[in-house]
Amino acid sequence: MKYAISLLFLSLQLSAQVSSDVAVRLTATIDTTIPSITINWPLDTLATSYTVYKKAKSSPTWTEIYDLLPGNFTSFSDHLVTADSNYEYGVEKVLPTLTAYGYINAGWNIHAAGSRGKLILLVDSTLSDSLSIEIKRLMTDISGDGWSLVRYDVSPSDSVTHIKALILNEYNAAPGEVKALLILGHVPVPYSGDINPDGHPDHKGAWPADMYYGCINGTFTDIYVNNPGASRPENRNIPGDGKFDQSYLSSPIVLQIGRVDLSDLPAFPFTEVALMRRYLDKDHAFRNKLISANPRALINDNFGYFGGEAFAADGWRNFAPLLGADSIAELPYFTTLSNQSYLWSYACGGGWYQGAGGVGSTSDFAADTVQTIFSMMFGSYFGDWDNVDNFLRAPLASADRALTNCWAGRPFWQFHHMALGETVGYGAQVTQNNQVTYNYNYGRRFVHIALMGDPTLRMHIIAPVSEVQATASGPHVNLSWQPTTDTVQGYHIYRSTQPFGMFDRLTPQPLAALSFTDNAPVNGMNYYMVKGVKLEQSPSGSYFNQSTGITDSVNFIVGMNNPDPVPEFELRLSPNPSAGQFRVTFTKEIPQTFTLTIIDPAGKLRFQHNYSLQQMQSSLTVDPGGLANGVYLVIVKTGESWGVKRLQVIR
Predict the structure, then answer these.
(1) How far apart, in whole angstroms, are the C-alpha atoms of residue 458 and residue 461?
(2) How far apart are CA 590 and CA 646, in angstroms?
(3) 32-44, pLDDT tens digit by residue?
(4) CATH code for the domain of 173
(5) Which residues are within 8 A (CB) of 565 and not within 5 positions of it... i.e. 6 or more apart?
(6) N- or C-end of the chain: fewer Cβ atoms within 10 A?
(7) What is the pTM of this model?
(8) Does 593 lie in the same domain as 545?
(9) Does one domain contain both 84 and 40?
(10) Other CB atoms closer than 10 Å to residue 584's CB: what's the count?
């Protein structure tokens, strides 16, 4: 596609325009009988022509499929399409004084990936203990959306090179699997470059650059830039100061990156721990459909056309394929969002570190509720986000709903893929890597491009199932659950051997029933996950959406349901039956150290403890406490050897 690069001081447009003129608001209509995809846009009486482009979702290169459609056209139909295929369309609109662009990822019956890859979770170690329950819950929720996880707790005083080494080691061990990075807390912030994307000379220098962590194959040096003149000390960049030279992305970002950093926000009358707990509560509530927002978008534009840059065009262009061309309204920001919900919002105005003119300030986020989930903002200074009461980070600390934010306008962001199930982090990665695929305004591939918030979040939420129960029965595991409250096509079942590992799907098609039998469970722990499946409709088409998976586990021991499981060393339990306490006696080989595990008839872990026997000692007394009447499996394991006996409890 052809682009006109418009810089703040270089764009000269003579006629009065508004930011929506610079966006083509695209939606898609699907006809499955022909089949065809029709791309639609609102009538613009000033348009002289349209050109339509097409590409595969993963391709960086467009193919022109129709040139110079008449200016009174409002749609174009593509018949070279099939179901379950992602197509991306770009439309270029020519007006007498400007060229506008729009993008959409369209298709129907797209099958969302059950496995999204591995996520690296970096946790500020000062938050680990206080938020252990909430972080574990977050990990469970992220796992429930198809991610495997690996977690590192790191100190805020660690070097950025140390953090990068952790990421590199994890990535290089499984380069095809590691796809995302979520940073919780004030994990060390990389600084890089000699840039001022907001155009202010006093703000030129190094900016926060989390892209450093995701640029796996890039080179970052600290020997060339010598700029001590920035007003803020953090932006000053001289050789050897630990801030990098690179202003531009030197190689593609390979990770979807997001950061939730709620440190240094004194405008909020809460501690950092309390603010992070509130964010994690919101994140969990949104994923599980305990909170939501109306599927519409708000734009608060205090810049307007601005010499052709039209920053708010970023909102108009993204919101149409996500929510519909008629679901966008220009309204005041805080006064509207305090009592009305909008799934998406965009706000821009002349800025400072703690606010934007015509929009509000960090203190407004602290004082009021803001009923929006995904936000985009633009204005001077606050895009440099690592400072006290920063306006870009402030929505995440607010009391109500807000979960992501980004500095959108230099460059433009690309979130349109979320209409068919992609994550907000995918949009960040596409934006960071964009060279000429999409209209970008100014600042493409600059190191400052960053997502505030959880990168694994998606737009469309299905209420999860409940009461998942996994029970070992004979050579099988039986699974049951209560249905989602949403209307779904059925349920998919997944299984893993690790609680946060990669889950494999066991069901070729969604099940209509509320039960499932696994005829081939693995020996050991089996973690099962149940997800509701819905054919989600959006202004870009349709895809098979899945709810957050709800899990249960069972310890399945091969042979536990045979009359006489064969041990590798012999043991005796007495008394048996027992009232609860019993004695374990080793009749032949005597292990010196071992783990004793008790499993109930459903395969659930009821007791586990490590023991050591002194020399010549062949028995010990075990009091597991709290065992109900029934037959249990007592397993003794040392190294690769094991012994097993049944224990009957009669109280």
Answers:
(1) 8
(2) 19
(3) 999 999 999 999 9
(4) 3.40.50.10390
(5) 557, 559, 644
(6) C
(7) 0.87
(8) no
(9) yes
(10) 22
